[in-house]
Amino acid sequence: MYKLIALDMDGTAFNHEHKISDEVKKSIFYAIEKGVKVVFISGREEFTIKKILKQLNLDTYYAALNGSIISTTYSEKAKFVNILEKKYILDIIDLIEKNNLTAIVFTDDLIFSSDNNDKFVNIVSDFIQPDIKRVKDIKKYILENNIISKILKIGISNEYDILKDLENKLKEKFKDEYTVSFSLPFFLEVMAKNSDKGFALKKICKLNNIDLKETIAIGDGENDIPMLNVASLSVAMGNAMENVKKNAKYITDTNENDGVKKVIMKFI
User: Fold this and answer.
1) pTM of the full predicted structure?
2) From residue 176, how far is each of 32, 50, 171, 193, 243 by CA, in Å?
3) Adjacent-strand bridge partners of 40
4) What b-and-e string marks burial along 191-224, b requiring 16 or more CB atoms within 10 Å of the CB?
5) Angstrom distance (rounded) from CA 149 to CA 60
6) Which tens digits make up the pLDDT trace of 98-135?
7) Is the dihedral of CA 50, 52, 54, 56 positive or negative?
8) 157-206 per-position pLDDT tens digit
9) How many Å from the N-terminal Cα to the C-terminal Cα in the chain?
10) In 151-251, where does DSSP find H-type helix?
């Protein structure tokens, strides 16, 4: 019997409008009524996740920024926080900028990026909250405001092939110092070494005294692979990237066709 379902948000529980359909919503509460915990493990920032869970009237565990923050809907203090190793942060931003790309920097209460009018930053800003603060010089802003030890994630948005090349360069230069992965084909993320969704799922299970053998994980992006690899039942969405599907035991329907609901009704 499964006791916990871990859901990604964008591309999984959410449709293309970044909303949870009524059918998926009903299935989530159906699982809860059956005694199953439903948790969200997302690359999204904490503010947005809390807001969504409150709108759903769902008091549960979540992991924000791919496991950099773990908490519950109404908790004022995080259960776990994992910041980026500050030693190479400015070097990471240097490498991003030398490749003519723009860094988006996340702390627990602030998101900021360059004011260079990067069209990809403008696109992702539509579904990031709080609003992205625009600054003239990212590295200078970090140093002047003494926030280098508060950074949880650095994101970069562009075309997949360009980001894939940057991913290779980041991994080559910084080796295993950081976790680097895609949350969406157009969004690459740099996080702390142990900040991934697999670690987050393990941590949430430990906090709830649930064995990993009693879990289902559902996702669509490359950043979901770590949690798919540790869950008992790993499920890829029908719209998932191909390498994600290769890491799943079961493939459900797409997020547009309520794939999450179909998993819950089949296995719970």
Assistant:
1) 0.87
2) 38, 31, 7, 7, 21
3) 7, 62
4) bbeebbbbbbbbbbbeeeebeeebbbbbbbbbbb
5) 28
6) 999 999 999 988 999 999 989 999 888 877 777 899 99
7) negative
8) 999 999 999 999 999 999 888 999 888 889 999 999 888 999 999 999 99
9) 8
10) 160-174, 197-207, 225-230, 242-245
